[in-house]
């Protein structure tokens, strides 16, 4: 779904304040904005901003069936703490899982196919009706994101709203403290980046935060690049 050019310009002009940006998006695109969240180590601040701006906004969570139990508990705790009342599970169809991963061990021998089945395809389908998707991506997260805009227009016309795109790691940390946001319980156990349980390992002090994801494999991304 593409968005009218005047709305895009208005959102760009509203982009300095994350809460204001999301309020305006929800007002101008009623029912047309959804947030994406993994309820991982870095998810709390974006979700707090969504809750302050529009607590009814759909928050799409990829329920791969392979999460740590701590992630599912954190999802419930954070939603309750913030007053988010529209968190939605996005899952692959049971028939697709039965067909393509009957033993549940696809992750071990073809993780790209597993992420495609459990993440990429279900999310593509779930996000089709929306004109704008809110993500927690930031420029500081990766060398590939150094030019990430707050309001991003994709080639198909769908918007990505990245309200924290320009925030530094220090600003994020301070704001998390100021808001008193609960941390994912696995962060304290050495997991600075948290994905599905079979594909996530704790990392040692000083190691790259994402080195515990698909450890030992060349794979570094699940292929969706949007969930923060
Ligand atoms: S992160 Fe691992 S378990 Fe999760 S969908 Fe990807 S390959 Fe499968």
How would you describe this structure in keywords?
Rossmann fold; binds iron/sulfur cluster; 228 residues; 6 strands; alpha/beta; globular; 6-stranded mixed sheet
What does this structure look like?
The chain is of the alpha/beta class. The chain has a single domain, classed as 3-Layer(aba) Sandwich (Rossmann fold). Helices cover about 35% and strands about 10% of the residues. It has eight helices and six strands. It has a six-stranded mixed β-sheet with strand order 3-2-1-4-6-5. A hairpin with a 5-residue loop joins strand 5 (about 150-155) and strand 6. About 35% of the residues are buried. It binds iron/sulfur cluster. Pathway: Sulfur metabolism; hydrogen sulfide biosynthesis; sulfite from sulfate. Its EC number is 1.8.4.10.
Low-confidence stretches: none
Q: How much beta, percentage-wise?
A: 5-15%
Order of helices and strands: HHEHEHEHHHEEEH
Please state the oligomeric state of the protein chains shown.
Answer: single chain
């Amino acid at each position: 779904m593409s968005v009218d050019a005047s709305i895009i310009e208005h959102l760009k002009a509203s982009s300095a304040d994350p809460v204001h940006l999301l309020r305006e998006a929800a007002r101008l695109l009623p029912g047309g904005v959804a947030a994406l969240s993994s309820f991982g180590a870095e998810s709390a601040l974006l979700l707090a901003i969504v809750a302050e701006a529009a607590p009814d906004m759909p928050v799409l969570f990829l329920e791969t069936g392979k999460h740590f139990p701590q992630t599912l508990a954190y999802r419930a705790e954070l939603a309750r703490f913030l007053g988010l009342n529209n968190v939605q599970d996005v899952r692959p169809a049971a028939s697709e899982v039965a067909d393509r991963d009957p033993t549940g061990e696809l992750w071990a021998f073809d993780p790209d196919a597993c992420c495609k089945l459990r993440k990429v395809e279900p999310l593509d389908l779930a996000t089709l009706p929306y004109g704008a998707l809110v993500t927690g991506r930031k420029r500081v997260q990766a060398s590939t994101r150094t030019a990430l805009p707050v309001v991003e227009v994709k080639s198909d016309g769908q918007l990505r709203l990245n309200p924290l795109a320009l925030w530094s790691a220090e600003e994020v940390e301070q704001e998390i403290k100021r808001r008193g946001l609960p941390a994912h319980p696995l962060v304290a156990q050495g997991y600075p980046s948290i994905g599905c349980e079979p594909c996530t390992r704790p990392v040692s002090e000083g190691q790259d935060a994402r080195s515990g994801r698909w450890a030992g494999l060349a794979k570094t991304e699940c292929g969706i690049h949007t969930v923060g």
